[in-house]
Amino acid sequence: MGSHTENHTEKALPALLQRADGLARARLSDRRYTHTLGVADTAERLAKLHGLPPQKTRLAALLHDVSRESGPDELLQSAGRYGIKPDEFARESPIMLHGPVAAEEARRELGIQDPEVLGAIRIHTTGAPEIGSVALAVYVADKIEPGRDYPSVEKLRELAARDLYEAATSILRATESHNEDQGRPTHPDSRRMLAWLEAREAG
Ligand SMILES: [Fe+2]
Ligand SMILES: [Fe+2]
Q1: pLDDT tens digit string along 29-78?
Q2: 104 CA from centroid of ligand 1 (Å)
Q3: Ligand closest in space to the Cα of 141
Q4: 197 phi and psi, to 5 degrees?
Q5: How many helices (H) and strands (E) does the chain have?
Q6: CB 110 within 8 A of CB 20
Q7: How far apart are CA 15 and CA 157, in angstroms?
Q8: What is the C-alpha separation between 92 and 86, in angstroms, rounded?
Q9: Does domain 9-202 have CATH number 1.10.3210.10?
Q10: Domain extents for the chain?
Q11: Which ligand has the nearest atom to the CA of 148?
Q12: What angle do CA 89, 84, 70 make, to 5 degrees?
């Protein structure tokens, strides 16, 4: 699935994985820490299946939700401090900022600079068009980790083992139709990601 950036992160990975786990443990409730470990194990397994760097993928997964339990005011304040501009969706629901804020904290607190890791954390809530494969593995793992239980999850697990792009397409189609049923708009990045995946499949 293409080449991956190599930088100092590679050598520091085992230590970083430990610190990332510690940060997630310190920041999160038992329930969400368990979710995080589920995502980390699933993302790492998907990475191995699909020829992606497993440790880097695990690192992003361990950190993806570290800001998920910050309150709306705290997220807005952190975003302001970090120069993250909330879009219309994030102004309405500041929890949408937990990915971008977590990516910035991974950079500041753990010194992570790898763009694939930071990008995967940043966009894990909405997805993004032209998503990188590490980010794709984390995005899909977030929806199918062992703690997830909804009617189509078993099918998605099988799909993800075969093809991450098809799994993401299926997830996004379900998200879009769920939002439609609820009369809610789908985030433009999610819509653009789905359009990108569909064009990719057709091409
Ligand atoms: Fe999240
Ligand atoms: Fe999550």
Answers
A1: 999 999 999 999 999 999 999 999 999 999 999 999 999 999 999 999 99
A2: 14
A3: 2
A4: -65, -40
A5: 11, 0
A6: yes
A7: 30
A8: 9
A9: yes
A10: 9-202
A11: 2
A12: 70
